[in-house]
Design a protein that fits this description.
Length: about 270
């Protein structure tokens, strides 16, 4: 039976990490979080949907599927960072997947997904968005988010990115979404947060920072698929009067731009 692993940091009442292990997504799993009411994990709508709406009904879709993490995904390591020798893709002894192995020193190089953390910042019925001043997706709107740094927790990284991109002081309230993008080797962890003051302004990576009413979010000008998915989940939850925690896998089409609204599908959406 699947379960939860949760942790806290910085004295915040919200969760700073949430790892789901659910081998049987067609069954409902219950878990008790310390200091929190029971949570119900359930399967959502059919397997391949563009931003599926969460449902408590039984799904008739196919069992949980996994995109193989083959050598076709992610950038290739062509030269050994240790000695500069060339690498070749081979399966190391005792393993099952090909790795970049140095032909000179024999060092095996493992590639892992990058963690992107950020905040979905709100004030009353509005959401804070930043217009990017850098590529990719220059001039398009995004949530304040970026790569997690060594030595910080997910919550600390999300707060730091929000300050860097919007100079906004926020209070993190709860986890909101984890969205995995296997093709580009990224995993997004987004937290719901509220503005502590209305004193915010563009950081060095932003042209503008604006509070958008939930009915006026510029979905046709969103920088990244992960942001578009998270915002749609947020609007649905807000209008339903209950916020959930979401997990999903974003399958990007080969060659699709980061902001292409038709360049991806979402599968295996679960929420609780």
């Amino acid at each position: 039976m699947g379960g939860f692993v949760v942790a806290r940091a910085c004295g915040l009442p919200s969760l700073t990490a949430l790892l789901l292990r659910m081998p049987e997504l067609s069954r409902c799993h219950r878990g008790m979080l310390a200091g929190h009411p029971p949570l119900i994990v359930r399967r959502c709508l059919p397997t391949r949907f563009v931003v599926p709406r969460c449902s408590s009904g039984q799904s008739t879709s196919a069992p949980h599927s996994t995109v193989p993490t083959s050598a076709g995904f992610g950038p290739k390591i062509k030269f050994c960072p240790a000695c500069g020798g060339s690498t070749e893709q081979r399966i190391p002894s005792g393993e099952e997947k090909p790795r970049a192995i140095c032909t000179s020193c024999g060092l095996v190089h493992y590639q892992n997904p990058k963690m992107v953390v950020g905040c979905l910042v709100t004030y009353e019925d509005k959401v804070l968005l930043c217009k990017r001043s850098i590529e990719p997706s220059y001039g398009l709107w995004t949530l304040p988010a970026g790569y997690m740094e060594l030595g910080e927790s997910a919550v600390e990284g999300a707060i730091r990115e929000t300050w860097e991109e919007a100079t906004a002081m926020v209070e993190v309230e709860a986890p909101f979404a984890q969205l995995d993008i296997p093709r580009i080797g990224q995993s997004y962890i987004l937290f719901r947060a509220r503005l502590r003051t209305l004193d915010f302004s563009p950081g060095v990576e932003s042209l503008e920072c604006t509070l958008f009413h939930i009915d006026e979010i510029p979905f046709d000008q969103i920088a990244f698929s992960s942001v578009a998915v998270a915002l749609k989940y947020y609007v649905e939850d807000y209008k339903a009067g209950k916020f959930k925690v979401h997990h999903g896998v974003i399958d990007k089409q080969a060659g699709a731009s980061p902001s292409d609204p038709s360049g991806f599908v979402v599968r295996n959406h679960i929420c609780f």
